[in-house]
Amino acid sequence: MQLLDGKLAAQAIKEDLKKKTSALQEQGKRSPHLAAILVGTDGASETYVASKVKTCAEIGFESTLKRFPSTISEEELLREIEELNNNADVDGILVQLPVPKHISDDKVINAIDPSKDVDGFHPVSVGNMVSGTPTFIPATPYGILLLLEHFKVETKGKHAVVIGRSHIVGTPMSILLSRKAYPGNCTVTICHSATTNLKEICLQGDIIVAALGQAEFLTADMVKEGAVIVDVGITRVADASKKSGFALKGDVKFDEVAPKSSAITPVPGGVGPMTIAGLLMNTYNAYMKKQ
Ligand code: GUN
Asked: What are the residue boundaries of the Tetrahydrofolate dehydrogenase/cyclohydrolase NAD(P)-binding domain, all occurrences included (predicted)?
């Protein structure tokens, strides 16, 4: 069994981006610049955004974190996005989701200039991805592709089973794995809450991407011998023995699935670091398109 170590793969990508950023600075150019918007004080969102900002600093990217109380009006938030759209020194914009209920996700996503849409959620980015001319691929599926590439996982002709149909992970992942490209060229089945024979389908999967957000959902009896397992889940489960008071659990019951698999991502340290690597790659690409 091979551990698909996301920390290791992300480190290689970060080192490459750091070198490229140093080279830009030596030419007297500014660094790529990511602006992140965080609304409210959700613990998980705080952690994700802090990690994105910290990683920018590590590789020499500029970053701006704009924080707003959960009482900010939709109108005001849209104005803030417009300001970042018009700021020529900002290459990438992300609004950490979820936003409070009185604010429309769609309006927020649609407000971002597609040339700065490093999350890849804007309909223009989605359309470009579906029509085979991707501009920005959502960071998590992009990170998973980079991970499969880093570890040279064979994907051509394989049956990939994607569990979960979210716009952030499952849906783009299924499109990308079916593309005529590497990593890709898979036969893809996308499963969701209305799938009636999930176990049977999973047992056919050469590659399983578990992205449903239910802790330890995928068990050994659902996985065929030698499958490649990609675990996107990160659910916080109460754990008094941890300083933080919680443990992070993936969507895969790692201890029993790992021995059956040929390769598997750990949680934490698998897809998580790769999501950030995908975001940084998108930010670098947004910057380069303007040069
Ligand atoms: N919330 C959960 N995942 C993501 C993500 O990839 N980007 C943003 N902006 N918010 C998220």
From this structure: 138-290
Is the shortest distance between the CB of 96 and ligand 1 below 6 Å? yes
* Dihedral, CA of residue 192, residue 196, residue 197 and residue 201, to nearest 10: -20
DSSP state of 31: P
Per-residue pLDDT of the chain (291 residues; tens, 9 = 90+): 999 999 999 999 999 999 999 999 999 999 999 999 999 999 999 999 999 999 999 999 999 999 999 999 999 999 999 999 999 999 999 999 999 999 999 999 999 999 999 999 999 999 999 999 999 999 999 999 999 999 999 999 999 999 999 999 999 999 999 999 999 999 999 999 999 999 999 999 999 999 999 999 999 999 999 999 999 999 999 999 999 999 999 999 999 999 999 999 999 999 999 999 999 999 999 999 998
- Minimal CA–CA distance to 252: which of 226, 205, 220? 220
- The CATH code for residues 139-271 is 3.40.50.720
**Ligand 1 in contact with 155 (CB < 6 A)?**
no
**What's the 251 CA to ligand 1 centre distance in angstroms?**
17
Q: Which atom of ligand 1 lies nearest, measured to the CA of 45? A: 1
Best CATH choice for the domain 28-116 from the list 3.40.50.1980, 3.40.50.150, 1.10.260.40, 3.40.50.10860 = 3.40.50.10860
Q: Residues at the annotated binding site?
A: 164-166, 234
How many whole angstroms from its chain centre is CA 47?
15
Q: Give catalytic residue positions.
A: 52, 96, 119
For 93, 208, 262, 269, the CA distances from 259, given in Å and listed in that order, are 41, 15, 8, 18
Q: Is the CB of 97 under 6 A from ligand 1?
A: yes
Taking a C-beta distance cutoff of 8 angstroms, is the pair 140, 278 a contact?
Answer: yes
pTM summary value: 0.96
Question: Any idea where the domains of the chain sit in the sequence?
Answer: 28-116, 139-271
